[in-house]
């Protein structure tokens, strides 16, 4: 078990983490980045990314993250495979522990741990991941243009996904477990006023159906009558929420009831001096690769300014 001090520690390796590392390394801050349990984040489970600027032909999600990593390494980022399992933000510099037992102190910590989409837990759902099953209509809806699709969920996210897909698809089934929706009234009205959305009340997913080509349908069951029926669809969108990967920061950082980290508006500053939150760990609204990368840039710039101010406080000079 080693002890080490670093100037900037980046926790996480999606678009936010790698972008933060690129900016921090170009600023001469010698960042160390720990990839976490899923190097590359959610994009590693995405086949085609067509909405990230600069890739006119689109790009495979895992390859995109390899490109981000190479760019961060090119400027000197020390990328390490491992997970941060514990933090102590009670003093300064900040302390963290790696899953191999190493202890690291850091002058600035940039959190880019992301979020994980919640799924129903069906084996068939996992079998067709990226073959018709998706947790992001904005990301993947275009691939199902002109086909019938289904959305699972009853909250604002599900309502937004359904109305978004209704502009692309002739028919959108909305699978709602209860006899009412949790979505806000205005979002419910939007769904109700969209003629090609059909809401299946008191309905749950029994199994996602498909073959080598991908999803071909879904079998649903009415949880009051027990009746089952099959719907012919090509896309199955799960919109039952995301869980931010922020458990290790509980008790240290301000977060909302779901676990999303709170930042000072317009910045990446958390309530702890020298700790910055970026990407999907702090974003429950947009959750896109391009917005995550943008906040990664913000995190690095905020960290750089913070360190300059710290140096000035200590020496009266700007390094």
Model description:
- This protein is an alpha/beta fold and 319 residues long.
- The chain folds into two domains: 3-116 and 242-315, FAD/NAD(P)-binding domain; 119-238, 3-Layer(bba) Sandwich (FAD/NAD(P)-binding domain), CATH 3.50.50.60.
- It has seven helices and 19 strands.
- The protein has helices at residues 15-26, 61-74, 123-127, 137-140, 156-166, 185-192, 289-315; strands spanning 3-11, 32-34, 48-49, 59-60, 78-80, 84-88, 94-98, 103-111, 115-117, 133-134, 149-152, 172-175, 197-200, 203-211, 214-222, 228-232, 235-238, 242-244, 275-277.
- The strands form five sheets. Strands 1, 2, 5, 6, 7, 8 and 19 form a seven-stranded mixed sheet that branches.
- α1 (15-26) links the parallel β1 (3-11) and β2 (32-34).
- α1 runs parallel beside α2 (61-74), α1 (15-26) packs parallel to α7 and α5 (156-166) runs parallel beside α6 (185-192).
- The chain starts with a strand and ends with a helix.
Q: Assess the beta-strand content as a share of residues.
A: 25-35%
- Secondary-structure arrangement, i.e. CATH architecture of the largest domain: 3-Layer(bba) Sandwich
**How far apart, in Å, are the first and last alpha carbons?**
32 Å
- Rg of Cα set: 22 Å
Shape: elongated
CATH C-level class of the largest domain is Alpha Beta
Overall structural domain count? 2
Look up the CATH topology of the largest domain.
FAD/NAD(P)-binding domain
| Unreliable runs | none
What structural class do you assign from the helix and strand content?
alpha/beta
| Overall pLDDT level | 94
The number of helical elements comes to 7
Reading the helices and strands in chain order gives EHEEEHEEEEEHEHEHEHEEEEEEEH
Main sheet? 7 strands, mixed
CATH H-tier superfamily of the largest domain = FAD/NAD(P)-binding domain
